[in-house]
Design goal:
- It is a single chain.
- This protein has 420 residues and is α+β, with helices and mostly antiparallel strands.
- It has a single domain, classed as Peroxisomal Thiolase, Chain A, domain 1, CATH 3.40.47.10.
- The chain is built from 14 helices and 17 strands.
- Strands 1, 4, 5, 6, 7, 8, 9, 12, 13 and 14 form a 10-stranded mixed sheet that branches. Strands 3-2-15 form a 3-stranded mixed sheet. A two-stranded antiparallel sheet has the order 10-11.
- Strand 16 and strand 17 form a beta hairpin.
- Keywords: Transferase.
- Pfam families: HMG_CoA_synt_C, HMG_CoA_synt_N.
- Residues 176-277, 288-387 form the Hydroxymethylglutaryl-coenzyme A synthase C-terminal domain.
- InterPro entries: HMG_CoA_synt_C_dom, HMG_CoA_synth_N, Thiolase-like.
- GO terms for molecular function: hydroxymethylglutaryl-CoA synthase activity.
């Protein structure tokens, strides 16, 4: 019998403050519809210097272990996917291991490839377990990032921050991954990058969108070839992509998911054998099906719209949002996931939603995490954005959460909120 491997449970952490996206639009003299309808945004998480990628990762991981009664001695790998690391040498994962007092007998490292880094970690962990090398142990993969473009920039309304921690094991209650069906595509491009010493990224926006769509085409076609060979999907009355119950996409902004879904459908329409003759324009119009988007994609974007861009965590926020709302309904059904990281790399993979998905999502306590946030004014948001990264406000962290307290002699000191 083939070994099942995948995501057993997850937890999220987000900054304690956010701005309403309409407030930001009005402050910038922009029609709010440009941000709400044009980008699909509702709220935007605001991270202060004390809520760095380490603090967010440690908070999410602590919640994951606590809410699922995970025995730390059974964890053999800890990976953090991030593009907002805090040191050129010491990984975020090492900080998390120390803060949570995890065992020494572990493989601990970070993965970096822009927004793809978290998926790289998940695949490393999944294949480590599937190979038998894990010897029954589990892995924790954390996607933790802060998307920062700066005040009054074109990218300002697509900022955000947060962390998603995932338990990878042989008990995939959330999602049993189809190991070996992955499709990948990578290219050496300059669509988005952050030179050393910069807090803000540099992005060629229109080019980056095209790179995303090109990489998606290659990754999806690679997955589809393997899925057809294993009869997971078939050419027939419905397109292969339509045979997935839901499809999740990397979400730098919510409207990108619509563009991505159109491109995926276009791949199927262009490649379908024995398809009736049609023009490229007719295929593109058919690919834009609003019904397909609403049925397969729209229900996954609720958390992304309220938190913003979280780089490596964006795809897994979409997974959390989907399973929070539809975990019970989707049990036993196959979904697709599309990961993209600038620079660039893409991977399309699939998996079957577990029968216990709804129960596991209830344990994640996402509603209470979101309810605990504070809406702040644009003036307060701008004050936070102007704070130096090395001098965090002295704020007591919430119970069970972590926070950067100071940087002294180039060493970072974190504090944990006292239990209530």
């Amino acid at each position: 019998m083939k070994k099942l491997v995948g995501i057993e449970a997850l937890a999220i952490a987000v900054p304690r403050r956010y701005v309403d996206i309409e407030d930001l639009a009005r402050a910038r003299g922009v029609d709010p519809a440009k941000y709400t309808s044009g980008l699909g945004a509702r709220e935007m998480a605001v991270a202060d210097p004390g809520e760095d990628s380490v603090a967010l990762a440690a908070t999410a991981t602590a919640q994951l272990l606590r809410s699922n009664n995970v025995d730390p001695s059974r964890i053999g790998m800890l990976v953090v996917g991030t593009e907002t690391g805090v040191d050129h040498s010491k990984p975020v994962a090492s900080h998390v291991q120390g803060l949570l007092k995890l065992p020494r007998a572990m493989r601990v490292f970070d993965t970096q490839h822009a927004c793809y880094g978290g998926t790289a970690g998940i695949m490393a962990a999944t294949e480590w377990i599937a190979s038998g090398a894990a010897a029954g142990r589990s892995a924790v993969v954390v996607c933790s990032d802060i998307a920062r473009y700066g005040l009054n920039t074109a990218g300002e309304p697509t900022q955000g921050a947060g962390s998603v921690a995932l338990l990878i094991s042989e008990q995939p209650d959330l999602l049993a991954i189809d190991v070996g069906l992955n499709g990948s595509c990578s290219m050496d491009v300059y669509d988005f990058w952050r030179p050393l010493g910069r807090r803000e990224a540099v992005v060629d926006g229109h080019y980056s969108i095209q790179c995303y769509l090109d990489a998606l085409s290659g990754a999806y076609r690679g997955w589809r070839e393997r899925a057809l060979a294993h009869e997971v999907v078939r050419w027939g009355p419905s397109l292969p992509g339509d045979q997935l119950s839901r499809i999740l996409y990397h979400v730098p902004f919510c409207k990108m998911a619509r563009k991505a879904h159109t491109q995926l459908r276009l791949c199927d329409l262009e490649d379908a054998p024995n398809a009736p003759a049609s023009t490229a324009e007719a295929r593109e119009e058919q690919a834009k099906s609003a019904a397909s988007y609403e049925a397969q994609v729209a229900s996954s974007l609720g958390l992304n719209a309220r938190i913003g861009n979280v780089y490596t965590a964006s795809l897994y926020l979409a997974l959390a949002g989907l399973l929070q709302g539809e975990g019970e309904k989707l049990a036993g059904q196959r979904i697709g996931l599309m990961s993209y990281g600038s620079g660039c790399a893409a991977e399309f993979f699939s998996g079957v939603v577990g029968e216990k998905a709804a129960k596991r999502m209830a344990q994640a306590g996402i509603e209470s995490v979101m309810a605990g946030r504070e809406r702040v004014s644009i003036a307060e948001y701008e004050r936070i954005m102007n704070l130096p990264y090395e001098a965090p406000d002295q704020i007591a962290p919430a119970p069970g959460a972590f926070r950067l307290a100071e940087i002294k002699d180039h060493k970072r000191r974190y504090v944990e909120g006292a239990a209530s």
